[in-house]
Amino acid sequence: MYLPILLTLFGFVFSVPLTSEDLRNDDLQARYVLPGESMPTLYDVQLYLDPNNDVSFDGHVSIRILPFRRTEELVLHAMETIINSIEVLGDNGENIFRTYTLSTFDTHLLRIRLNRLIDPMIPLTINIAYSGTYAENLFGVYLSTYRNENNGRTERVITSQLQPTFARRAFPCYDEPHRKAVFRTTIYAPVEYPVVRSNMPKRTETDQLKPDVPGWIKHEFQDTLVMSTYLNAYLVSNFSYISNEDDEIFNVPFKVYSRPGTQEHAKFALEFGQKNMVALAEYTEIPYEFPKLDKVAVPDFAAGAMENWGLVIYREVALLLQEGVTTTAIRQNIARIITHENMHQWFGNEVSPLSWTFTWLNEGFANFFENYATDLVLPNFRMMDQFVLQMQGVMQNDAVLGVNPMTYPVFTPSQILGTFNAVAYQKSGSVIRMMQHFLTPEVFRKGLSIYIKDNARGAVGPSHLYAALQHALDESTHRVPFPLVDILNRWTNQGGFPVITVRRSSPQAQSVSVSQQRFLTDSTLSSNDRWHIPVNWVLSTDVDFEDTKPGFWISTGATATAIDIPGLSEAEWFIFNKKRTGYYRVNYNVENWMALAKVLNEAHETIDLLNRAQIIDDSFNLARNGRLNYVHPFEISLYLIKEKDYIPWASANTVFNYLDIVLSGSEVYDLFQYYMLNITAPLFEELGFNADDHEEHVLAFHRNNILNINCRHGNDVCIERAQELLQSFRNDPSELRNRIKWSFFFLLSVLILNVLTKSLSIEKSLSALHLTDTSLPKSKTLQLDGPEVISDSEIRTFKSDVVVNARSSNEAVYTEDANIALINSTRSLRRNIRPGQIIQNYSVKIAFDGDTFNGEAVIDVLFDSTEDPLIFHLEALDVHEVRTGLSTPEEALPTDFNPEDGTLEIFLDGGGRHRVVVIEYSGEISNFGNGIFQGSFNDYQYIIINLFPTNARRVLPCVDELTAATSISFTFEDVPFDEIVSNSRKEDDDSNQFRALNVPPNLWGMVAHNFVSVGMPTTNVVLYGRSNLNQHNLASVAINAFMAAFNEKLDKAYFNIDENQDGRMHIFALPDTNVEWNALSTVCIWEPYIFMTNTHSMMQQKTALVKIAEAMARQWFGYLVYPEDWKDQWVISGLASYAALEVVTDFQSSDDEDISLLDMNTIFTTDVIQEALLLDSYSSAVVISPEDDMFDEVDIRRHILGLLKIKAPAILRMLRFVLSGEDDFILKAGQALLNRRFVTPISMFDFFTFVDDTIEDDNIDIWDFVQPWVRNTGYPVLHVAWTSANAVLLTQGHFSLAGGGDVRYKIPVTFTTNRDQNYGDMHPTMMMESTDLMPLPFTLEDDDYIIFNLQGQGYYRVNYDVEHWDRIISALDDPERRQEIHPLNRASLIDDALNLARAGTLDYDVALRLTLTWAHETEYGPWKAFVRNMDFLKKMLFSADESDIYVRMVQRTVETFENKVSFSPDLSDNEPAMTSLTRGIVMDHACRSNYDPCIAAAIDWFYDTNSEEPAVNPRVPVDIQPAVFCTMVRETGAEATDLLYVYLETDISLYDRLVVLESLACSNDEEFINQLMMDTISEDSPFGIEERSIVLAAIIRSGLDNVFRVLDFMQSNTNDIRDMYGGPQKLEELLYILGDNILNGDLEYNLRMWIRLGNDLHESEGIAESALENAQVNLEWRERSLEEVSTWIQENDAHTAIVSFTLLFFTVLVSLFNL
Ligand SMILES: [Zn+2]
Question: pTM of whole model > 0.85?
Answer without folding.
Answer: no
